Amino acid sequence: MLTDPVADYLTRIRNAVKANLRVVEIPASSLKKAITKILFEKGYILNYKFEDDSKQGIIKIALKFHPVSKISAVSKLQRVSRPGLRKYASADNLPRVMNGLGIAILSTSQGVITDKEARKLKVGGEVLCYIS
After folding, report:
1. What is the secondary structure of 48-66 as a DSSP string?
2. Which residues pair with 72 in a beta bridge?
3. Does pTM surpass 0.85?
């Protein structure tokens, strides 16, 4: 049993990047699927695929690397809100990652969205992670 599935998700991606793996498999959940879609839309991963198995399903993520220098598109994954200490941000105090170059992923009443979309919608929520 995992106590923090989002931290496990980020750690699996972080470990795959350090090991120069092209594909990583992660147990699926609706929150992890939403985060994966955001990573794909923002260009941090190459592709993804949701597969059903007899249990909860699997997310297969193809990681993105630079063709010449072999540097990953994801340089830093940081969990912000955790089960022992939740972090919330109002619409006025949304975080900026690397002065706007990275993204913060939030869980809001409008769904799982980035900090930039939350500013447009003027909503706050739980800050899940920072990605740069």
Report:
1. EEEE--SSS-EEEEEEPB-
2. 65
3. yes
